[in-house]
Design goal:
The protein contains seven helices and 16 strands. The protein is of the alpha+beta class and 298 residues long. The strands form two sheets. An eight-stranded mixed β-barrel has the order 1-4-3-2-6-7-8-5. Strands 10-11-12-9-13-16-15-14 form an eight-stranded mixed β-sheet. β15 (276-279) and β16 (288-293) form a beta hairpin.
């Protein structure tokens, strides 16, 4: 499967969703049971004003897809960023980060400066990446939004400077057949207002219809639902107060094969039809997962 992992100039991709966990040692076994292939643990560092690298206080594993990825993130140090992660996790278990990819994060940062969505200072992030037993350095430019501007989670725009290190072929095949991150469902009180903010952030139009709203990207999309509509979609979920990231949608290579794999692992499937399998949030640290057929791209 040939894929361009990073966007061209002017494009915006749904890059990854961050699942915050309290125990990074327990996470790999739980996600592997669901059929995800995970990258080795990586410790994050930032480059300070003097050019020195300092720990950011967080570490991760990732499930890399041909389109986007799922990040499993935990606090592993005593830093402001680690404290922020712990604060989000104390609010509720699950996903707390949505990252969008752009060709030039610094340019988007400059465009947002002085607006009501003025971002935090641009961050030059690094992390070690295992390369066939050795180690190389993954480099990223990251625009992080202040929580008061984007209360739905840690919202950021990233530019990948070393995509070949991040998307290594050996990590792209998953036993559950997932090949793409396609959608994020967010519960909010006012879908039109939330979609409008995200639309301004990403320079994309917001679409509002029938009490829901969405922002469609060059790859992937965001969908905003009221708590009432979310209850109809996910009646088994006990949701926290909005706003919160309720679910992620993945595209699978062969949904029937995905269903067989999950059945063999005795993973409970709450809802199943020809085009979608839904797993309860309890199976993935508070995040509802929607496994979808490639036919279901509506």
């Amino acid at each position: 499967m040939e894929t361009c992992f990073v966007p061209d100039t002017g494009q915006v991709f749904l890059d990854h969703v961050g699942l915050f966990v309290g125990d990074l040692d327990a996470a790999p076994a739980a996600l592997t049971r669901l059929g995800f292939t995970l990258t080795p643990r990586a410790v994050h560092v930032n480059r300070d004003a003097g050019g020195q690298t300092v720990p950011s206080g967080t570490s991760n594993h990732c499930a890399m897809f041909h389109e986007g990825y799922l990040e499993i993130l935990s606090a592993t140090g005593d830093t402001p960023l680690a404290a922020q992660l712990e604060a989000w996790l104390a609010r509720h278990a699950g996903a707390h980060l949505i990252a969008f990819a752009a060709a030039d994060a610094a340019e988007r940062h400059a465009a947002l400066a002085g607006t009501d969505l003025a971002p935090l200072p641009l961050v030059r992030l690094q992390r070690p990446i295992d390369v066939d037993g050795g180690s190389a350095t993954g480099r990223f430019s990251v625009v992080r939004m202040p929580p008061e501007a984007m209360p739905e989670g840690r919202i950021q725009i990233v530019t990948h400077h070393t995509p070949d290190l991040v998307w290594q072929p050996r990590f792209l095949t998953h036993a559950n057949g997932v090949e793409a991150l396609r959608e994020v469902l967010v519960s909010v009180d006012d879908p039109a207002a939330a979609a409008g903010r995200f639309g301004r952030l990403l320079a994309r139009p917001a679409r509002v219809a029938d009490g829901e709203a969405e922002v469609v990207l060059d790859r992937g999309r965001l969908r905003f639902l009221t708590p009432a509509r979310l209850r109809r979609r996910l009646p088994d979920l006990t949701p926290p107060a909005p706003p919160f990231i309720a679910a992620v949608g993945f595209r699978c290579r062969d949904l029937a094969a995905t269903g067989r794999f999950l059945a063999e692992r005795k993973v409970p499937v709450i809802e199943q039809d020809r085009m979608q399998l839904r797993l309860p949030a309890s199976e993935a640290f508070g995040l509802t997962m929607l496994f979808r057929s490639a036919e279901r791209e509506d």
